[in-house]
Design a protein that fits this description.
The complex is a heterodimer. By secondary structure, chain A is α+β, with helices and mostly antiparallel strands. Chain A contains 4 helices and 7 strands; from the N terminus they run H-E-E-H-E-H-E-E-E-H-E. In chain A, strands 3-4-5-6-7 form a 5-stranded mixed β-sheet, with helices on one face. In chain A, strands 1-2 form a two-stranded antiparallel sheet. Chain B has 13 helices and 6 strands. The chains are: A alpha+beta, B mainly alpha.
């Protein structure tokens, strides 16, 4: 509920801030604000684990679609409110994060009555090679995710879709 | 010399501050997870699991659905209000949320959509029923009022409830199957926090600092949208 003017005025007058530069996914450099301990924070940053993660459409990591697109080059939108015929992907589509890269998106639905979780759509990002190793990581994550919903991952002859 | 983060480091910093860099295992501390995020957005759609459960699970896969709601309804570690959407917010942030109650209350009081068509007395009656009976959900109002069913069955009472909720007169006492139960704010927010007040400048400074801390680096727009 803060206005852009309030935030701008805060940033310009706050003594605890520093101005830094950030390289975006398209290699352009933009200015940004950071707290003064950002360098110390940076020293403690480790490389993200290589596990493949299924990210919720409402996850804070991707909530700001503009920040997501600029930093990761990943164009995402929630199509829940887009009419079915106009959807590019689907109703409830989860981004897939691997390390520092979004590698694809997946549509999954759990049916708790039947005790099943089904994959109904899958789209690797352009330029991402989807080999056996990635597939196996996806499979593992789906298995873990299904446990949260208390259901089993459904498979048809070993395939997910 | 201006510090420059290359793209890879910027991604690493953001994924670390937002809790997605480390291995999501270990003992579950729900409140620590939510404090680290600042707040937790909640959403009704249960596609696999509801968004709030998924967001916590992504940061610790030992998390289970039953672990969240006691922190709101029983322990009062959390309160529910509106960030950019309905969210659970650590209770200790309540004193820094006063401006938010005031601004949202004013926005909804003046919004055309939120015109209830109800008179002041009728809105008061909604409040008084909760005062007398304790926490009630929107369903209590279209099922229990005899003879006035037509009037209560329409959205007006829900709009009245929400207006009082945005402004901080009512608060979420608990949720059951995601249905919100409203109670008087005085019965939800602890006395020790209700007496604390901070200037608008201090609240803005706190909100912006907390947002930037969790973003790692940000533009003005990103701080505003946080």
């Amino acid at each position: 509920m803060l206005s852009a003017r309030e935030v701008k005025s805060w940033a310009e007058n706050c003594s605890g801030l520093m101005q830094i530069e950030v390289e975006l996914a398209d290699k352009s450099i933009v200015p940004a604000y950071a707290l003064q301990d950002v360098e110390r924070g940076m020293a403690e940053v480790a490389s993200p684990i290589k596990r493949l993660r299924i990210i919720n459409p409402f996850d804070p990591a991707i909530r700001d679609r503009n920040r997501l697109a600029r930093l990761f080059g990943f164009a995402y939108r929630n199509e829940m409110f887009v009419p079915k015929t106009k959807r590019k992907w689907g109703y409830y589509v989860y981004p897939l994060l691997e390390g520092v890269r979004f590698v694809g998106r997946i549509e999954i639905k759990a049916d708790r009555g039947r005790g099943e979780m089904n994959v109904t759509g899958f789209w690797p990002e352009p330029g991402v090679r989807w080999g056996a190793k990635r597939q196996s990581k996806l499979h593992s994550e789906l298995g873990r995710f299904s446990k949260l919903a208390g259901v089993e991952l459904a498979q048809k002859n070993g395939a997910l879709i | 010399m201006v510090l420059r983060l290359n793209n890879r480091d910027a991604r690493r910093l953001w994924l670390t501050t937002t809790g997605l860099a480390a291995t999501p295992t270990g003992p579950v501390d729900v409140m620590a997870l939510i404090r680290a995020l600042g707040f937790l957005q909640i959403d009704t759609v249960r596609n696999v699991t509801r968004a709030h459960h998924h967001i916590l699970w992504s940061r610790n896969q030992n998390y289970r659905e039953k672990m969240l709601w006691p922190h709101l309804g029983e322990r009062r570690d959390l309160f529910e209000h509106f960030t950019h959407d309905a969210s659970l917010i650590p209770m200790e942030f309540f004193p820094m949320w006063q401006m938010q109650f005031a601004r949202l209350g004013a926005r909804f009081a003046n919004s055309r959509w939120y015109k209830t068509g109800m008179g002041r007395d009728e809105v008061r009656a909604v409040y008084q029923r909760i005062e007398m009976e304790g926490p009630l959900s929107t369903h209590a109002f279209d099922t229990k009022i005899e003879g006035k069913r037509e009037m209560w069955a329409r959205p007006p009472h829900k709009k009245a409830l929400e207006k009082m909720w945005y402004g901080g007169e009512l608060a979420t006492a608990y949720r059951e199957n995601f249905v919100k139960y409203y109670d008087l704010a005085d019965r939800v927010f602890p006395q020790r926090l209700r007496g604390v007040s901070h200037s608008t400048e201090m609240q803005i400074d706190w909100l912006c600092t907390q947002a930037l801390k969790r973003l790692g680096f940000a533009s003005v727009g990103e701080i505003k949208r946080f």
